[in-house]
Amino acid sequence: MARVYLGPAGIPIGAKERKRSAGTIDGIRYVSEVGLNAMEVEFVQGVRMTREAAQEAGEVARELGVRLSVHAPYFINLCSEERDKVEASLTRLQESLDRGEAMGATVVVFHPAYYGKLGPEGCYNAVKDGVLRIIDWMKENDIKNVKLGLEVMARKSQFGGLEETFRLVKEINHPQVVAVIDWGHVFARNGGSIDYRAVLNMWREYFGDQPMHTHFTCVKYRKGEWVDEHEPIDTNNPPFEPLARELGSEDIEITIINESPLLEKDALKMKEMLLKYNNVLVGLH
C-alpha cells in the first residue's frame, strides 16, 4: 500500500466560502479540518508572498501535519530565444524556491519550456543548462531542503514528455531536482490513454523508491484533441480509481495534488477511493 499525502492545488473552496478574504493559512487550516494532509501553494500568476508570510504558513502547516508544496509562475520558458525572458524565468524560479524553503515545502513545481525553434534536442540542453544554474544558485543561497520539480506536460509543443523529463532528471542526478508527474497531462499527451502500471514501473526503473510528487485532474476533449483544461474527476478522463488500485500494491510515498476545479471536494472523493484499496493517508485515521 502507498503512503499518501493528498490535498488541493490552492486555497480550498470551503475556506473561501467561509471567509471571503481567505488566504494561505486559512486554506491550510481548512485542509486539515476536512481530513486532508497536503496543499499546493499557487504562485502561478506571480510570487506575491513575503518570506515572513511563507514562514508563518509553514509553521501552521507543521503544527497541523499538512504537507506543503509550491507551484511556480506559469510565465517560465527556459527555451525562449529572448535572453531576458530566460533570465526572468530563472528569477521567478529563485523567488519561488526562496519562499518554498521558508515555508518548509517539499517541492517547487514548474513548467520548464516550449520547444520553439530549438526543437526537442536543443530545448533539452537549454532546460538542463537552466536547471544547473538554479542548482548553483540554491547552493549559494543556502536553499537546502526544497526540491525543484520539472512537471510532465500535456502539449506536444512543450518540453516535458514523460521519458524526456525522467531522462533529464536522471542525467542531472541532484537530490534537489525531481520529476513531477501530472497524470492528466500524461493522458492528454498520449492522445487520451494512460497505463498507470507502466508509469509506476517506469518511475521505479529511473528513481527506485524515491517519493513521488504528482498532480491529478481530468482534461477536456475539444476540437479533435485532448487539451489541458481542468475538469471534475467524475468526468473520468482519466479515471482516478485505477490509479488508486495500482497504488494499493505499491510500497511508495506519494503526494497527489488535486487540480480539478472542485479542489478539496474532489480530493475527498479521491481519499475514499484510495482507502478502498488500503492506501494510507499519512497522519490521518
Mind explaining what this structure looks like?
- The protein has one domain: Divalent-metal-dependent TIM barrel enzymes (TIM Barrel, Alpha-Beta Barrel), CATH 3.20.20.150.
- Helices cover 44% and strands 21% of the residues.
- The protein contains 10 helices and 13 strands.
- The strands form 3 sheets. Strands 2-3-4-6-8-9-12-1-13 form a 9-stranded parallel β-sheet.
- Strand 10 and strand 11 (225-231) form a beta hairpin.
- Helix 2 runs parallel beside helix 3 (51-64), helix 3 (51-64) crosses helix 4 (83-103) and helix 4 (83-103) crosses helix 5.
- The protein is globular.
Q: What's a quick, concise take on this entry?
A:
With 285 residues, the chain is an alpha/beta fold.
Helix and strand content put the structural class at alpha/beta
Could you say what the CATH topology is called?
A: TIM Barrel
Main beta-sheet strand count, sense and barrel state: 9 strands, parallel
**What separation lies between the terminal Cα atoms?**
15 Å
Number of domains: 1
Instruction: Write down how many β-strands occur, each being a DSSP E stretch of 2 or more residues.
Output: 13
Number of helical elements: 10
Order of SSEs: EHHEHEHEEHEEHEHHEEEHEHE
β content, as a range?
Answer: 15-25%
Mean pLDDT: 97
Shape: globular
Pfam families: AP_endonuc_2 (PF01261)
GO molecular function: DNA binding; DNA-(apurinic or apyrimidinic site) endonuclease activity; isomerase activity; phosphoric diester hydrolase activity; zinc ion binding
InterPro entries: AP_endonuc_2, AP_endonuc_F2_Zn_BS, Xyl_isomerase-like_sf, Xyl_isomerase-like_TIM-brl
Keywords: DNA damage, DNA repair, Hydrolase, Isomerase, Metal-binding, Zinc
